[in-house]
Amino acid sequence: MFDRNGRSPAARIPLGQGLSSRVIASGESILINDDLENNVAGVHFGSQDAVRSILAVPLRVGGKVIGAISAQTYQPGIYDDEDRLLLELLAVQAAIAIQNARLYQDALYAAERRSVLHLAGQEIVRLGQDSEQLYKAIYQAALRLMPTDMFTIALVNDAENQIDGVYAIDRGVRGPFVSFPFNMGIAGWVIRTNKTLLLKDYDDPSVTIERVQFSDNQPTRSVLAVPLRSGEKVIGSMSVQNYEVNRYTAEDSILLEMLAAQAAVALENVRLFEQVRRRIKELESLNRASQALTGSLDLEPLLENILSSAKDAIAGAEKGTILLWDKDSDYLRVRTQIGYTDARILELPFRSEKGYSGRAFREKRPILIENALTDYELPFDERVDEVYAVQSGVVAPLIVKDAAIGVIALDNATKKGAFTKEDLNLLMLFASSAASVIENARLLAETRRRAGEFEALYQTAADVASQTDLKVLLDTIIERAQTLSGASGSGLYLFDPERNDLELVAINDPDIRPGTRLVLGEGISGHIAQTKQPLIVDDYRTWENSSSHYKGIPITSVLGIPMLYSGELIGVLNVHNRADINQTESTHMFTEQDINLLSLFANAAAGAVYSARLLDQTRRRLDELSAVAQVSSALRTVVTRSEMLTIVLDQLMEIAHADGAALITSIPGRDELLIEAARGANAAFAGMWIPPGESLSRVVIETGKAYTSPDVRTDARLFRPGVTDSARAITLVPLKYFDDTIGALSLVREEKDGRMPPPFSEADIRLLNAIADMAANALQRSSLHEETARYAGQLVIINDLGHSLSETLDLAHIYEKLSRAILDLLPDSAAVFVSLFDSRERSVETVYGVQAGAVVNPADLPSVLFDESGYGNQSQVILSGKPLIVPDLSVSLKEKRAVLVKSGHEKRITQSALYVPMKAEGQVIGVLHAQSYDKNRYKSTDAELLELVANTAGAAIQNARLFAQIKRRVDQLSALHAVDTTISSTTDLRVSLQAVLGNVARHLKVDAADVLLLNSSTLVLQYAAGLGFFTAEIAHTNLPLGKGLAGVSALERRVVRIPSLAEAGVGFIRDNMISSEKFVAYLAVPLIAKGEVKGVLEIFQRSSLEQDDDWMSFLEMLAGQAALAIDNALLFEGLEKVNIELTMAYDATIQGWSQALELRDQETQGHSMRVLGLTLRLAGALEISDKEIQDMRRGVLLHDIGKMGIPDSILHKPGKLTDEEWEIMRKHPKYAYDMLSPIVYLR
Predict the structure, then answer these.
(1) Can you tell me whether residue 170 is helix, strand or coil?
(2) Can you tell me the distance from the alpha carbon of 891 to that of 1086, in angstroms, rounded to the nearest whole number?
């Protein structure tokens, strides 16, 4: 394949795919000048995407198409029929040349194969005595003859009636030795049929021959296998295999058969040579074995000689062991070794049912291990690196009278397949000769050992029988049992007939503590106690009936013996072995001899324990009775519960030798448990609450059964808010009063100087239970006494509350005293609230509250709408008129959509509540409710107490409310009267308006108010008076009628209410003033008198403006008074103006009369004014009042008015007047009187 960029690599193209296949299949040329994508599919060469024209023609030789040749271009429309004819001519010449080249290559290949066969034959003859080299030479010849991915040689093993895959190599990697039956695999088929097998594809469904896998690689596809024949006998098979299909031909079959013929002769010769060499070696080994067996009858030296001789006789052996069977434990134990450096090899226990040594022992036949690293039978129970490093081995059983007594094994740690079957046979000869001699030596050693055991048993039994102290006796028993058995640990359980279980009373093991209890049938000791028969467990960790108490402890083998006295079970004696700190197993296994020896010892020990227990029980019973009497005497000296708790805990600590004690109480209605009292090491826990959930205290209280543990660290259920690190042993006993468990007593013992304290014994528990029962009764009696005293105190509180409430009519004082009394009655309440029911507004408002000791601001609490159906806690109480106990507020809030009244003083949320109605005159006027941080806090007795309080409170609140209402009415009437008095006593409008505004602010509790007067001429509202304003901006108010909120109120003659100026959505002309004064609410009332609008009363509030009908009624009264004051002021102002004008007219008339009088007499002109001036100066000097001066002024001007009745002749007479004239002249005062007296103004 060539492209403009040069030659492309060769490629295989399946027939039926691409342009070439199309040309070859049809035998016709193809010419395509464009649209290649639609005309050609499949494989393209070169730059396929750019090709536009293509010409392809077949290659023919003798009428047979052997291929195709094509030309391609990157331009369209290049080729024509002339080009096609030219390429066809070229194809004819090319086909002949290619065919000739093929024939020449085939001839060269055939000659090369014949040369390979010839050379292979010479090599095979040369290597005729080395089987491994022979296998390799045959493989190399096959590799040169044909494509070979895998090569195998399989030989018939007549002795084992099987086929041995002696050589297998996969792509240069040697495979393992594989044996398989004659009915399996390709080799089995070829050997059975004595025929050559050629498989083009092993995966073809028609192929039914079962595979034998020689490697971990993928299965091969092409297979060629031929028989190996020696004369007329088939001795094996040889195969070549390939991972591609159809890789072998019939010619390959002939070549491989020729190679197999040469190989078979050589393989048979090797087999015969090795048989001769093996026989010579066996004879030499028998001679060595005979010499080794004639030495000492001492077992250990004998075993060493035998093993050393066997290693020397077998060349591949680097190491070796002799294992003898222990029939008691069914273990094979290493008795001697050679070549191993790790001393632990002598301690390894080999199970008879595991490993290749166990297999040789069980099947009583030798075993050859070519690759121990992959042998599934190799792993042991304990890891020893030297054992796991073994790569190949050979093992033979030691058989005496058709019974296997052990095995002899040789190992190689550096080479796989280091041993042959001849080595195996040779080792079997050694084993056959040595077995009987070894057995005799074992019997002699066993006899010596038994004599020593009986001597030790006699001395041990004498030592045990001399002890009377039970604890010392128990420790002595386990110590001597451990010594007799050679075990690494020991323990003793005593049977408790009352509880029908076992208690561990003595132990010699760093990970096990005394005090563990087992039911019959549980674990080894429980099983032995139940069956009264000894038991051996070789590996406790895997024993299916092991107890959970010992989980994680590396105990290996265990022997348990029942302790019986006159047929009665006293206890169970155990000895055990365990792995060391490196988790290396002890190989010490217990036997039947151990059972017999310890059984004799256990029987003697049982009698001693029986006697010591009787003595110990008698002493302990006396101590218990003395302790109970001591506690009983102490309890009789105190009365209160707190004193009793202290005495009980102190006495218990002394009697039980405990370091700390506590009393845990179950509080009705609460999920938590209270540590009511604590002493000693537990003193810091007094007053703590144990949260809900599983805890040891709760378990004891709920079950009514005692609990004990030798180590508190092993139980996660223990409540430990700060348990000291030294606390170890613990016990809890229930406090029972009749059938009820009311709490628990807890005792702890601490670790001191690194030593674990003794656990609480069954005797301790029995004594504690007796004292707990006594204490429970005493505490209950004390509680009843305190309850009676408390109830009496509560009645006193209620009685005092009644007297206290009757002495006051102040609602704030009533609420305070009421809340204080409720908290005195229910001291653990978190909050107390007083709510009043407004039947008209149908709402419930909280008016007073106390939470966490702080008074709640009622404004912070929401109002609750009354639900007519009783949906909601307070609505339900008001509707039913009965108390309501809510044990769980969270449920109530979800179910009833109730409002949780809380002050926010604390983050904690109340959990339960008590609601009680307050009644007055048979009607519910409100609700008292108490809340607690605990669920289920309130009971019916609490409701009854609170009902008494509520009845008293209802009457007191109702009286106070009536008094407050009457007082408010009186205050309002007084205010109205004061305003009336002010209005009637002054004509000054400003004073009257200030009086009205002062009462508005004082009685209606508003922040600021003003009065705007309507100018009837300009129709503008103008500021007249105000109070409560921070700035003077309000004084500049001038609002046209109908403008602004006040203008609208005046124009429409209606009250305008704006609860929230910020949210009203209406324009306020005086926005700047509103913003600077920080007003929130607004109200405008028109001032109307005699049907005329006189102005507007405005109210401003810097918070929400609370209003009711009474409030509005009083406001309207004050507004009416303001309107009346304005009207009166305006009327007075008019009258005053008229009066002034009239006075001025009178004065002008008087002055006119004076001037008219002067006109009659020019001589007296100015006389009146001069007299007036002199009179006024004189009056001022004399400090005469203005009123009198006014009268004097008028008198001076009119003093000569009577002369108007005197004739001018008399007035103007130049001379002296006559008597008659004087008579007339003297009448002018009379004329003045007659003239002026009718004028009222001048009187």
Answers:
(1) strand
(2) 53
Would the pTM count as exceeding 0.70?
Answer: no
According to DSSP, the β-strands at 64-73 and 53-61 are antiparallel
Q: Where in the chain is the domain with CATH 3.30.450.40?
A: 2-106, 127-276, 295-449, 467-619, 638-787, 808-967, 986-1125
CA 888 to each of CA 474, 489, 873: distance values in angstroms, whole numbers, following the listed order: 56, 57, 12
From 256-265, 454-463, 821-830, 1093-1102, the region with the lowest mean pLDDT: 454-463
260 CB burial (10 A radius; 0-12, 13-18, 19+): buried
Place of tokens 């004990």: 708
Sign of torsion, CA 611 612 614 618?
A: positive
Cα dist. 448→186, 444, 453, 587 in Å?
A: 61, 7, 9, 22
Architecture of domain 295-449: 2-Layer Sandwich (3.30)
- The pLDDT tens digits for 873-916 are 888 888 888 899 888 887 766 555 444 555 444 557 888 898 99
- Distance between CA 509 and CA 756 in Å, rounded? 13
3-state helix, strand, coil in the chain (%, to 5): 45, 25, 30
Top-level class of domain 638-787:
alpha beta
Q: What topology does CATH give the domain 1137-1242?
A: Hypothetical protein af1432 (1.10.3210)
CATH 3.30.450.40 applies to domain 127-276: yes
**282-323 confidence digits (pLDDT tens):** 555 555 555 555 555 677 888 888 888 888 888 889 999 998
Asked if 688 contacts 676 with a C-beta cutoff of 8 angstroms, the reply is no
Compute the radius of gyration of the chain from its Cα atoms.
64
Instruction: Specify the pairing of strand 854-855 against strand 864-865.
Output: unpaired
Q: What is the CATH number of domain 986-1125?
A: 3.30.450.40
CA-CA distance, 823 to 771, in Å (whole number)? 37
